[in-house]
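Two folds, back to back.
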Amino acid sequence: MEIIRFTTVVDRDQVIRPPSGITLPQGEIEVTVHPCRSTPPSAGDPLAATRAWLLDFAAEAQRAAPELPADLAVHHDHYAHGKPLP
């Protein structure tokens, strides 16, 4: 199944309502909730939207990051290129 992403507002009734045009499959699905930024980017800062996007992107990358070896920096050539360990 493909990933379906949309933004909506959840009211006090705690019901998630997809926007018109979004059809969700029936049956059991997994839902992940990410709060939207509460403050819109400043109109006086031309890079505010880009900065906000980069921060969101970095946060998502950090959540999805795989576990890496503790000695990765020291033994980069071994992990990246197969050089024998000293």
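---
second:
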Amino acid sequence: MMHLTKQIGKQTIKFQNPPIITATSSMAGPKEGEGPLKDYFDIICDDILNGCESWEKAESQYVHDNIKNLCEKTKTKFEDVDYIISGDLLNQDTATIFGIRDFGIPYMGVFGACSTMGESIGLGSILVDGGFAKKVIASASSHFCSAEKQFRFPLDLGTQRPPTSTWTVTGDGAVIIEKEGKGPKVTFLTTGKIIDMGVKDANNMGAVMAPAAVETMTAHFRDTGRSPDYYDVIATGDLGYLGKDIVLELMAYRGYNIKNNYTDCGIEIFDREKQDTHCGGSGCACSAVTFCGYYYKKLINKEINKMLFIPTGALMSTTSSQQGESIPAIAHAVAIENME
């Protein structure tokens, strides 16, 4: 039987030669550009349509512009990138596909809903550590208007949003993962399992995804032998205020105290009171732009050195919701550390 030297426990990979996140780029929409993280984003677009004729085309333009900026700021030629691994919330990842179709880079499309950034970073790191690639771009995007139109109600209806709802982040986050270079390293990947608690409310993403975050977080600590206080920051992807409270309660029930270093990207990206975002932020871009803009700069500046990044996703579709299905969820944990 072959011995899997990089697999520890049931769900976790320990990278033998930890891949390096050498650069990031973050592009945010107008509402995000008015929030508390505005000074951390590379590009803030003051037009939610981004000069396009539809929300969907606007999201593709966000993807195109941000990945192009990532390559330009690092003087990376498209032909030097081995793969793009990316996804979004639209049917069949169309925001990503039309955003990158002119780049000529080998593409692997992923769907993890709002957990996509964790999935894409994890898979990109596997390729680099495994010797299958030297340079990979991992990315994820979402758009408030296109997500509302697809999963809830068209904005023109003026439907009232309940207190449990979160605000889908408009933007794109992208990273370059390399074998060599300078930057924080991806040391562990804990891949999540599908968790379905029977919740059917598409306006309560926190309750849907929090149990998945807890399952993955617990698996990470069990597989690695690490305790929560090993990390300077533990950040889930887009649970918002309600989801964060659920995570704290469930983790405490399992014997883990994470109050001192746990937060959620959906809480960090908006000012809840001033911006009226109810429970906070969500969407693929929530964790993507928050990591690529805010946390990556903190890692580079050594303000934090050890981070557990856990994007969370609701694995629903318009069809499944219309047919009365509950909303399954998943979360992927990526350990990112300064090791110099």
